[in-house]
Amino acid sequence: MLINGQRVNDPQTAHHNSDIPITQADISAVEVFPGANSSLLGPDAIGGAINFQLKKPEEKKRVLEFSFEGHNSGSALFSITEKMHNLGVRLSVERQQSSGFRYDTDYKKLTSTFNSSLELPRGNMDLMFGYQQKAFGAYDFYTQAMGYPSKEWTRTYLLNSGLSWDQAGFLFKPSFLWRRHFDKFMLDKTFIRSSYLSHHRTDMFTPGIYAQKETKVLGKIGLGFEYSEEIINSTSLGKHSRYQKSVFVDDALNLFPKLSLGLSWRRDDFEAFHANYTGGLNAKYEFTEGKSFSFGIAKNIRVPSFTELYYNDPTTLGNDSLSTEESLNYQAGYELKNEKLNFSQAFFYRQEEDLIDWVKRTPSQAKWQVENITQADVLGLENRVKLTLNKYLDSELNYTYLNKSIKSQGYLYKYGQNFTNHLVSASFKIQLPFGEQSFIFSFKKKPNRRGWLLLDSYLSLRLPKNSQAFVKATNLFNVEYQEIEGIPQPGRWVEGGLRFDW
After folding, report:
1. What's the pLDDT score for residue 37?
2. What count of other Cβ atoms lies within 10 Å of the Cβ of residue 129?
3. Helical (H) or strand (E) element with 395
4. What is the largest CA-CA distance in the chain?
5. Radius of gyration (Cα) for the chain, nearest Å?
6. The predicted structure's pLDDT at residue 378
7. pLDDT (tens digit, 9 = 90+) per residue, 126-162?
8. What pLDDT shows up at residue 38?
9. Which DSSP symbol is given to 365?
10. What is the predicted pLDDT for the residue at 499?
11. What is the spatial distance between Cα 202 and Cα 313, in angstroms, rounded to a whole number?
12. Which sequence spans correspond to the domains of the chain?
């Protein structure tokens, strides 16, 4: 998980990777990097990465949005942006809450974000600070089908700063990120079956420097240095700290008018693990304008979280002897673009070594034990077709196939078989005289389970002075389904609201 290219993964557990203190008013774009390599993005990008690009505060603007939903749910958002000569600032606050669609699925969430951007003669300086607090019911989320009414409270502080300076083809980018996260977890909030309660505080400090020079012979060649320190103070995991020192290089060049090449290499020195080397190679050949073929290979890694190393509760047990996960990714793709059609297809194959999962050797084993599984092979296919029929109708069709073969036998897996075999989505966006209507169909099928088909819809009505009314509906068919077995998902959910921009 990245913000403006800076890694913000939670070192305690991946369950908190999405505790990112930004509001919807702050997001410019969400980029997905399938098979992204660790040499550019850092450890954890073993299968890909998601990058949230933040809007720059470039114009004076106000946004007010509020909505109401079923189950006593609602949200409110206010964002104010000011532009003063070469300095832009934005303050956003968002509140969400719900009583939940069933017992112990209630939540409250508050997010506030401050962004600033200072334009310099040859670049800009950006500063972002965010705060988020959440309280939510987590019925059986960590203890599938065991009936634990769990409760969790989290708080996140994030500071992200960076300077971008460009002088005659030489780019210089120092950066600094600090993330503090508090987590309070109660396994049984009724205290009937268990009084287990844990408190965690984690800190992550990541300063870095990146420099890039554009040359005639080698293209755009870059060199980066990064230092990261992760600290945890926990009632159940103990007190631990670890640091990481990294150096990486990358190069992007055009060998011929139609052939471009990208190279990257990285060395990570971890205090608790051996040094790791990762790297990537990708090439792109354009047959004609809008028609291209690409190929890439990358080695990626992921370091175990503190939870995987040290956790211990009545249902799960960590393992402080874990080693890093490693993967070797191969991908080949074809893309065709013109005014009305955008078609892309990609094949990928990933070899995973020492992947980490929670397993049992026998059904009677009392606890899930985390282990390094020897090897797994992942084979996949992605297809995307985007068609613009006319100025009133856009449509998009996506299909992804995935198959994961775990070589180690004799285990019961808590998460290993929870991948999606088949994922199909189709969306239609219709421009109406008074607004916009969209429909999204999605079908998902997991191994040894029945698939499910969902329909979501969105309708917006234009109002005077850049305002709009909207209605969102998810799971219109009211389908009963479970992403993770034993944890039911919400049925039909309808939200209506107003948005004012000025």
Report:
1. 60
2. 16
3. strand 393-406
4. 71
5. 24
6. 93
7. 999 999 999 999 888 777 677 889 999 999 999 999 9
8. 59
9. -
10. 97
11. 19
12. 2-419, 424-478+492-502
The 3-state secondary structure of 197-255 reads EEEEEEEEEEEEEEEEEEECCCEEEEEEEEEEEEEEEECCCEEEEEEEEEEEEEEEEEE
- Which residues, other chains included, contact 101 with Cβ-Cβ below 8 Å and sequence gap of 6+? 70, 71, 490, 491, 493
* 8 A C-beta contact, residue 157 and residue 131: yes
pLDDT digits (tens, 9 = 90+) for 296-346: 999 989 999 999 999 887 788 999 999 999 999 999 999 999 989 999 999
Supply 330's token pair. 């191969």
Q: Which residues contact 291 (CB under 8 A, 6 or more apart)?
A: 335, 336, 337
Distance of CA 374 to the CA centre of its chain: 26
Distance (Å, whole) CA 264 – CA 261: 10
Please name the helix (run of DSSP H) or strand (run of DSSP E) that holds residue 310, with its range, or none: helix 306-310
**For position 36, what pLDDT does the model report?**
61
Angle at 432 between CA 430 and CA 434, to 5 degrees: 145
The SS3 assignment for 308 reads helix
pTM here is: 0.92
**Residues in the chain, pLDDT under 70:** 36-39, 144, 409, 415-416
Residue carrying the six token digits 């050949």: 285
Six-digit token pair at 109?
A: 């969430």
For domain 2-419, the question of CATH label 2.40.170.20 is answered with yes
98's tokens: 């719900």
Joined together, the tokens standing for residue 28 give: 């410019």
Q: Say how far apart CA 231 and CA 140 lie, in whole Å.
A: 28
